[in-house]
Amino acid sequence: MAFGDGADDAALRAAWADFCAQLQSAGDRVFKDANATSGAQRVDAFRFLTQNLGQVFDLSLETRDTRYPAVHTFCGPTRKLGGDCADFTYQQAWIDGQSSYRLAGNRGAARFFNVTVQGARVPGPGVLHEPFGDTPEANLFGQQLSVNDDGSFEIYIGGPERGPNWLPTTAQSRKLFIRQGFDRWDELPAQLRIERVDMSDPKPLPTPETLVEAMGWAGEFVTGLMSDWPEFPFTYGGVDAGHPNTFPQVGATEADSKRGRAAANMYWELAPDEALIVEFDAHDGLWMFTNMGVFFNSMDYLYRPVSYTPSRTKADRDGRIRLVMAHRDPNVHNWLDTQGFSRGNLTYRHMLEGEPAVLDTRVVKHDELMRALPADTATVSAAERSDAMWARFHGIRRRYVL
């Protein structure tokens, strides 16, 4: 049987050709002015694209049928998207407002836990590419969750109210968004599964029309992510590319408040002989910093010290915490690795109790760094840095069951 013998051959081939053309167009956006010209940063941009190419049909096809939902982990050590924080896990499940679902599993030990019903997405200015841009409709946080003694729980989504763990839906509901935030390396993640409660038949096979639609979604996804990052946060997210190495004021939008966090992002540029000190008062609550590439993709947090939370940070005697971003190891405990990049983005998130910190920054010469820090700044040996790498490696693998 050759091309043209099938009734749907022309439509399927045209859809695939369109997707491939969009993928090629997306690759051309690696070379935008915002990205540095070094090989490492060009490669990082292509990795951002190829990592998400690896999940695009999971999102557009394999998990898309809301009658047969699945929990999809869309960020991890080998896949970065959406300004992801290194100490968060992000999952989603496509749902609809007509069905009833059960999300069940074991709570785990993540310090922050949140399940959100997301509503309508209206494309237009100020709306991020798929699968983002929708609005929170209903929230359930970890402290609100009723959990059994063995850590097991069930959450019902949609349908008639059944408590205490129930999230309502509307006609516009389209997905669940699940976030877990971690502090210590020994915190285990929640193990989750989802099902439609009245499922009675096997999942049908995709039709040609389904696949054509999925290819169209996939093409818009790959071009959208390469088009929107990093311009979207600069235009709509308060990130100031014109004043690098300075944090904007930390604040929370109404949508941020519904998500239970405040956020700030800083665009940074560092010359080979420079280092950047981020300084703030030690403060209550769960907070985290993640160093990211140009496309707001988290750096290599499986192996490198590119993220910090309260339990993994040393404060100085004056009650201040000083993170040191540098291209090479300055032998201080709170080192933020740049991976050798000349530019990127640093994100700060604050959740739970307490208030966000005021973040002060200053750039110094790397060789003058120790004179710019307090005399009691915690330092590490090569062996201690290696031990910290192993602790990170084991901790991240626990979160993702790698």
Strand order of the largest sheet: 1-2-8-4-5
How many individual helices?
Answer: 8
Mean pLDDT: 95
Order of helices and strands: HHHEEEEEEEEEHHHEEEEEEEEHH
Task: Identify the CATH architecture of the largest domain.
Answer: Sandwich
Contiguous uncertain segments of 5+ residues: none
Using the coordinates shown, work out and report the CATH topology of the largest domain: Jelly Rolls
From the spread of the alpha carbons, the general shape counts as globular
Describe the main β-sheet briefly.
5 strands, antiparallel
How many domain regions? Answer: 3
> What is the CATH class of the largest domain?
Mainly Beta
DSSP E strands, number:
17
Helical residue percent band: 10-25%
Task: From the alpha carbons, calculate the radius of gyration and give it in angstroms.
Answer: 22 Å
Structural class: alpha+beta
Please report which band the strand proportion falls in: under 5%, 5-15%, 15-25%, 25-35%, 35-45% or over 45%.
25-35%
Distance between the amino and carboxyl termini: 43 Å
Give an account of the 3D structure.
The longest helix is centred in the middle third of the chain and has 21 residues, at 208-228. This protein starts with 8 loop residues before the first helix and ends with a helix. The model has no long low-confidence stretch (mean pLDDT 95). The chain has 402 residues and is of the alpha+beta class. The protein has three domains: 7-65 and 204-229, no CATH class; 85-198, Jelly Rolls, CATH 2.60.120; 239-400, Jelly Rolls. It has eight helices and 17 strands. The strands form four sheets. Strands 1-2-8-4-5 form a five-stranded antiparallel beta sheet. It has helices spanning 9-28, 39-53, 56-62, 208-228, 231-236, 254-259, 369-372, 382-400, and strands at residues 72-73, 88-94, 101-106, 112-121, 134-141, 152-157, 166-167, 175-181, 191-196, 261-269, 274-281, 286-292, 307-308, 320-326, 335-337, 343-351, 360-365. It holds the Pfam family DUF1214. InterPro entries: DUF1214 (IPR010621). This is DUF1214 domain-containing protein. It comes from Mycobacterium rhizamassiliense.
